[in-house]
Amino acid sequence: MNLKEDYHVHTNYNDHSDSNLTVKNVVIEAERKGIEIIALTEHVRESSEWIHNYLNEIANCKKKTKVKVIPGFEAKILSDGNIDCREDIARDYFIIASFHTKYYDKAIWINALKKVIENKYVNVIGHLAPESSFQINTEEIEEFAKLLSKHDKIVEVNAKYKRPPENWVKIFIKRGVRFHLGSDAHSLSEIGNYASIIKLIKLFA
């Protein structure tokens, strides 16, 4: 839980980030803020056509900075537990898997989460929390914790959505689940900004 690391940063390769959130500007801002490691994790789909240009930009910027820059993607968790990302991309790059669709069905959600935890190409589970339409009990959280540890998945402490829930974090810590910080930045000011999750961060003290 290093405050000088940010493992979830977007760019303007999507249609809802600030227009000045270029790869170059992200890296410059990270360096200005004293961030040591940054992961660029743009939203990806199997149909994404910008991947080559995005990776080239990252490669060029990596040569000009002291910041460790990790090229990666955030992939949507599908209802069957697969991710919306080409296998060759998932295999070769840093991957955050996150729910971006509400399924309104606890069984579907649980099955999808378990399957994605078992996915050997997924590195991180992003902004993890249950849907508002159902509750997850302690026994189920414990089961997720065991699975996360078994498959050596990292759980992101997400500043944008203030997730996971505090009780989940406490159980995961006890079970030895690994964590790191992600701002989920969609603007330059959000990079490395963890003010919204200080309470969660203090659980690791």
**Tally the helices: what do you get?**
7
Structural class: alpha/beta
The portion of residues forming beta strands comes to 15-25%
Largest β-sheet summary: 7 strands, parallel
Structural domains: how many:
1
- Let me know the CATH homologous superfamily: Metal-dependent hydrolases
Uncertain parts:
none
- Largest sheet, order of strands side by side? 1-2-3-4-5-6-7
Under the CATH scheme, which architecture would be assigned? Alpha-Beta Barrel
Oligomer: single chain
Order of helices and strands: EHEHEHEHEHEHEH
Helix fraction bin: 25-40%
Give an account of the 3D structure:
The chain has 205 residues and is an alpha/beta fold. It has one domain: Metal-dependent hydrolases (TIM Barrel), CATH 3.20.20. It has seven helices and seven strands. The radius of gyration is 16 Å and the shape is globular. The relative contact order is 0.18. The model has no long low-confidence stretch (mean pLDDT 97).
Topology:
Blueprint: E1 5-9, H1 23-32, E2 37-44, H2 51-62, E3 68-76, H3 87-92, E4 94-98, H4 106-118, E5 124-125, H5 138-150, E6 154-158, H6 166-174, E7 178-182, H7 198-202
Parallel strand pairs: 1-2, 2-3, 3-4, 4-5, 5-6, 6-7
Overview in brief:
This protein has 205 residues and is α/β, with parallel strands linked by helices. The chain contains 7 helices and 7 strands; from the N terminus they run E-H-E-H-E-H-E-H-E-H-E-H-E-H. Helix 6 (166-174) links the parallel strand 6 and strand 7.
